[in-house]
Design goal:
CATH topology of the largest domain: Protein Transport Mog1p, Chain A
Oligomer: single chain
Structural class: alpha+beta
Radius of gyration: 20 Å
Strand order of the largest sheet: 1-2-3-6-5-4
Helix content: 40-55%
Shape: elongated
Number of helices: 8
Length: 253
């Protein structure tokens, strides 16, 4: 079989999005036939693409506006995550910093975070937050409001914080992540409105106090206690999110 030239991650993303001409699609498919691991990743991306297109609806059965917006937002998040996840082994840290500074220059004085400055579990928390928002709009996706922290700890080795009185759980999900099982709890609160608390084990044990920053369209506070990291994702004011995150952090120490 003739040797095929390498295919870069950006071109793989274009393949999934139907952005390549016929000749390049054939070349990419030939390369994928020789690289089964990459082919499996592309098949998973194609499935995600088709599921999101289905959620958005067809011309005959249009989806609701809210569902369409959330599906597009999640689709964009997944596309960016896939590109940067595949590029990471090929890119030097200096290139990531350059991208961050270029983004900063393009938007003037608005703070812009380089992707390397945000822990990966925080990015996963925001994706899970938007996925749960999407689930809430789908009648075929029942929400799980039963919250058993003892069972979650036994099954995932993740301890969730004790929630303040008055908070109402609207959904509890165990999501897969590159860190192993992660937990996301969606909650309605009196002060912050709807929020989510995400927990995962990122692979190192340390203790860090809460930090609050804007991530995409959210205000997210994150911290770590031992082997478990947490993220509180909200649309509330940064000061309110920081105050709540600090209270949760202190209650767990």
């Amino acid at each position: 079989m003739p040797h095929s030239e390498p295919v870069d991650p950006v071109e793989l993303a274009a393949y999934v999005d139907d952005q390549l001409d016929v000749s390049r699609r054939i070349a990419v498919e030939h390369w994928l036939s020789q690289n089964p691991s990459a082919a499996a990743d592309v098949m998973a991306d194609l499935r995600l693409r088709d599921e999101l297109r289905f959620v958005r609806g067809t011309d005959e059965v249009p989806a609701s506006l809210a569902t369409d917006v959330l599906a597009r937002r999640l689709n964009g998040r997944l596309q960016r995550d896939r590109i940067f996840r595949n590029l990471r082994p090929l890119m030097a840290a200096s290139l990531l910093l350059t991208i961050g500074w270029l983004a900063h220059a393009q938007i003037g004085n608005t703070p812009a975070l380089a992707s390397s400055t945000v822990p990966e579990y925080v990015t996963a928390a925001v994706v899970a937050h938007h996925t749960t928002e999407l689930r809430a709009l789908m009648h075929s996706q029942p929400q799980a409001t039963e919250f058993d922290p003892v069972e979650l700890l036994a099954r995932t080795d993740i301890m969730m914080p004790v929630l303040p009185v008055g908070w109402t759980i609207t959904d509890v999900q165990v999501y897969p992540s590159e860190f192993g099982p992660s937990i996301e709890v969606a909650i309605n609160t009196n002060d912050l409105g709807p929020i989510s608390i995400f927990a995962a084990r990122p692979g190192q044990s340390l203790t860090t106090s809460p930090m609050t920053l804007p991530v995409e369209d959210t205000t997210t506070a994150y911290w770590q206690l031992g082997p478990t990291a947490y993220a509180l994702v909200s649309s509330a004011a940064p000061a309110d999110v920081a105050k709540t995150a600090t209270a949760l952090f202190e209650s767990m120490r």
